[in-house]
Amino acid sequence: MRIDSGILTLISEELAEYADDMETFWDTLDGETDIMDAVGHVIRQIVEADAAITATDEIVKRYADRKSAHQGRKQALQRTLKMVMQATGQKKIPHPLGTVSLREGVNSVNIPDPDMIPSQLCKIVRSPDKAAIKKLLLAGEEIEGAELVKGPDSVSLRMK
Q1: How far is CA 8 from CA 30, 46, 108, 130, 154, in A?
Q2: Number of helices (H) and strands (E), helices first, in the chain?
Q3: 133: three-class secondary structure by DSSP
Q4: Taking 90 as the threshold, does the pLDDT of residue 15 lie above it?
């Protein structure tokens, strides 16, 4: 269903005297254009899109759980190969499907208490405090390098 905004604008201008009486305005506009049918159609599509989003989220969660189970299985199988190699004292298993190699572990840094690390060994991350900046800008202060930008208007839909 197509909504012609040009026609709606023209009719809305003709109904300007009823703009304060919402019920009269919409009843009259609907009588001239069937706008309520179009709005109902769009609302139903939004509800269906929400249902599809929810269903997709559930599918993504299920597949993430499935992926996690496969990763756990793979790790268990790798531990089995590692046990075979350690038990035999071998570093490689030549097999027609692939060569299995036992590699030495690599060194990594573990930091149980980051507060104990000297400051010269720490990275400082500089990040603007947007909440504080917004508060000052709204209060009328000018801040070099910052400005308030109004986002686009949006539509809110509450279901009865």
Answers
A1: 10, 21, 66, 40, 19
A2: 4, 2
A3: helix
A4: no
Model confidence band, residue 1 (pLDDT cutoffs 50, 70, 90): low
Q: Which helix (H) or strand (E) holds 101?
A: strand 100-101
Q: For 138-149, what is each residue's pLDDT tens digit?
A: 999 999 999 999
Domain ranges of the chain: 5-103
Is the pLDDT assigned to residue 17 strictly greater than 90?
A: no
- Specify whether the CB–CB gap between 38 and 48 falls below 8 A: no
Using an 8 Å Cβ cutoff, are 115 and 128 in contact?
Answer: no
Proportion of the chain in helix, strand, coil states, percent, rounded to 5: 60, 0, 40
pLDDT tens, residue by residue, 41-86: 999 999 999 999 999 999 999 999 999 999 999 999 999 999 999 9
Residue 41 CA, distance from chain mean position: 27
DSSP 37: H
Report the distance separating Cα 74 and Cα 11, nearest Å: 66
